[in-house]
Every structure is written in C-alpha cells, then in structure tokens.
Specification:
Strand content: under 5%
Helix content: 25-40%
Order of helices and strands: HH
Distance between the termini: 33 Å
Largest sheet: none
Number of helices: 2
C-alpha cells in the first residue's frame, strides 16, 4: 500500500511539471515507499508518531545538469 501511495504521489508531481511545460525527457521519478524514512513513524514507547509520518510523506526534487 505504501509503495503504491508513494508511486502515485511521485507521478502527480511529474504530471504537474509536465503541465508547466517541462519536457517529458527531462523528468523522471522513483518511488521509495517506506524504505527511506527521514523520521520515525513510532515514538520510542511504541505509540504512533503523527509528526514523523507527516515528514515521511514527501517528494524530493533533484535538479541535475545533463
């Protein structure tokens, strides 16, 4: 489920960029799902960490010179 959600989120950003005139050949994406979190989804006591989950729902954009 998380991987599908991540994939759809990334596709949405790509569609936005294409809609703004960025050439299709200049845009790519990769979804990571829950494999690369930047914050814990749980607190040390095992309870849910909503702030961490929110931070993990993200899109990272990298600008590269080709």
């Amino acid at each position: 489920y998380n991987m599908t959600l991540s994939e759809n989120r990334a596709k949405s950003v790509v569609e936005y960029l294409l809609g703004k005139g960025i050439a299709k050949g200049r845009v790519s994406y990769k979804a990571f799902g829950r494999s690369q979190p930047i914050a814990p989804n749980e607190n040390p006591d095992g309870t849910d960490n909503p702030e961490g989950r929110q931070l993990n729902r993200r899109i990272e954009v990298k600008v590269v010179n080709r």
